[in-house]
Amino acid sequence: MKVSKKTEIDPTTWVDLHGDYLYRYALLRVSHHQIAEDLVQDTFLSALGSLDNFRGESQIRTWLTGILKRKIIDYYRKKQISYSLNSDGIPQTPEDFEAFGSRQGAWKMENAPKDWGNSPDKLFENQQFMKILERCIGDLPERLSAVFVLREMDGYDTKEICKLLDISPSNLWVILHRARHLLRKCLEINWIELEKKQK
Amino acid sequence: MHKSIENLMMKAIYRLTFTCEIVTQKISEGLDHPLPLRERVKIRVHVLFCKFCNRYEKQLLALHRAFQNRVESQFDEEDGEGLSDEARQIIKRALKDKSKSS
Predict the structure, then answer these.
(1) Of A38, A43, A153, B66, which sees the most CB atoms within 10 A?
(2) Residue A97 three-state SS
(3) Domain of B6?
(4) How confident is the model at residue A167 (pLDDT cuts 50, 70, 90)?
């Protein structure tokens, strides 16, 4: 749908033109429908209040997304999510590795990574695989997904994230490792199940 | 390869490099900050001999690259869930009220 510049700047059209996009953007980052809706509403209201600041250099959607991004970071901060590595909600990864004996620290055979073929990159071009990825991100504990999304989806560098969320670099690396570890596993389990069903 | 020889070889690899548990952590860390040369060499040697960590590394890098190539744009194109009708109405009303009061 082609939308004229004038229509785009008209706040009465925002909900229909950008509401779903912003909601999905927020939902990927906060995993709760109600919170995502509240964040979208706050974004539109803030945007309306500062419409004079919109210079028209970027698209209105980009501008609205920038406001939403700041709202999401404020939400992470206000919620004072605990990033302590021993706190509940930061799952450990050792369950995938042998805990004792001569194979201590080696993969448990039943949890070892399966073969995704020669070019795993190709899987990420598959729509169904991407749907599973989206679901897996949503299933991550919020403490992990907040950091993961800031790093991998929003492209913040590690120093910025440490500053934004007030965590140490070593904590951040462990959190990112656990998030990636769980995501990889979730993708594998769900993708294999889906392939089995389709056969 | 005979199972017992393979086991002995893997034990030697763990001793020389890291365990799989540590290698997986280091592979992830390598995406966030540069690792010392010594650690990078250990990872390379481990991954060369351990098929599971080799897969793990390839899959994690594919995941990372997918995000770098803006997979998010693919999320947008899907017929995903949008705002509920109720939320849509509430937000529209809030915007209207704010427009009137300002």
Answers:
(1) A43
(2) strand
(3) 1-71
(4) confident
